[in-house]
Amino acid sequence: MLLQQQKMQLSAYSGLYDLIVPKENLLRKINELIDFSFIYEELLSKYCLINGRNAESPVRMFKYLLLKSIYTVSDVDVVERSRYDMSFKYFLEMTPEEDVINPSSLTKFRKLRLKDTDLLNLLIGKTVTIAIEKGIIKSKSIIVDATHTLSRSNPSSTIDVLRERSKLLRKTVYQFDEEFKTKMPSKNIGNDINKELDYCRDLEKRIENEPSVSEIPSVKEKLNLLKEMMEDTSEQLVFSKDADARTGHKSADSSFFGYKTHLAMSEERIITAAVVTSGEKGDGPELPKLLQMSQNNGMEVDAIIGDSAYSGKENLTIADEQNIKVVAKLNPSITQGFRKDEDRFDYNKDAGRFVCPAGHLAIRKARQGKKNIGENQVDTYYFDVEKCKVCPLKEGCYRDGSKSKTYSVSIKSELHQDQIAFQESDYYKEKSKHRYKIEAKNSELKNIHGYGRATSYGIENMQMQGAMAIFAVNLKRILKLM
Questions:
Q1: Whether residues 203 and 297 fall in one domain
Q2: Domain tally for the chain?
Q3: Which residues of the chain have pLDDT under 70?
Q4: Spatial separation of the C-alpha atoms in residues 181 and 183, rounded to whole Å
Q5: Which positions fall inside the Transposase DDE domain (predicted)?
Q6: Shortest CA distance to 312 belongs to which of 277, 349, 363, 279?
Q7: Which of 58, 133, 343, 350 is the most buried (most CB within 10 A)?
Q8: Domain encompassing residue 224
Q9: Is 404 helix (H, G, I), strand (E, B) or coil?
Q10: In whole angstroms, what is the distance from residue 10 CA to residue 12 CA?
Q11: Cβ-based burial of 294 (10 A; exposed 0-12, middle 13-18, buried ≥19)
């Protein structure tokens, strides 16, 4: 049961806060800056108002999570610190002698109360509203970029998982029949996935041919796990406890496994919008959402500042319709007037190559056609055909038996003449100087607020982590500018 929003109770010791928590304390400033009752109103429907025992104040629980993000500590540590840290107690609206919650309550609060809540947009919208009301946001530009967050769980390759499961199967068999070692097939010592599959099939066949072993429940269980894994390898995926995380590419030679957070930020360094996706998603396609969300949160936008990933045809068209300038360098691979399957193949500007619908990066590219003689040049991107052969999305994309899989884009030098001319203007050159600000903001999120690695599994938890981290950096920035 949820009572009316709790306020700090009267206590003979409350005067200690005036002595111990100085006026310039960050948490005191945050309490004075923002009325957290919007959290109570937002979560009211998640509680029963008439039955059950009294629930902890949702405002206080939310503040616990905010403290975790500001100071990058665990559930256990934030609760323990709130037992003796007077600034924490003051922020949480506790009396000095009041006892703390059980750390497990924070997990329940995240899972039961914050689930299905658009916390990310809610908190960003709240801070942008405050910044506008305080006259902090004066610019009409948004700077856009994406930052990556590593999954909490490291991925395993298909061959590694196959080997792990075949190893567990062998160990289980040996527990019941040590002499079965002499009947086992020779292990594959290379990294050829097909040879590893052949080994696993041979192992499966030999064990199933011995009912005295294969019918033992624990052996059958491990055998079924191996069979399931062999079927899953047809998708050529990495395997991880984090089912929503995906492999993204920071360059042609380096990758990461996790998520991307696509950000829009004002020139005053207040984040105005954010979208969390899996790691393989391109940056450019998220721009329309970031622009719309920034505008919904109260931003007036007359310029978008970003890198070449945002100079795609669709983005330029949307911006032109609203008389918004796009301060982003043209890239011939994504700014041509038309390309086939442009809604399926994403351009990764860090790697300089396209990513197929299954998330695989092109392994190389080649340019065809002669320059400056009126003939359109074409960039052709080549994909690993071995992955295409077993890809679950190959229908309509790869024809069985083909020796190669390519994706080509035409480079038409006549297009985007207006944008090319705009890139030479003083306005463009001046605005482009602000792009570094969002890279510094990404660094702050990662290095100070622990946004470099996910703290939980799944994209919903990643969105929640992003909401708290962005809320914290926005509040700190507002206080600094005030």
A1: no
A2: 3
A3: 1-13, 46-55, 156, 232-240, 331-343, 369-377, 410-417
A4: 5
A5: 355-478
A6: 349
A7: 58
A8: 158-235
A9: coil
A10: 7
A11: buried
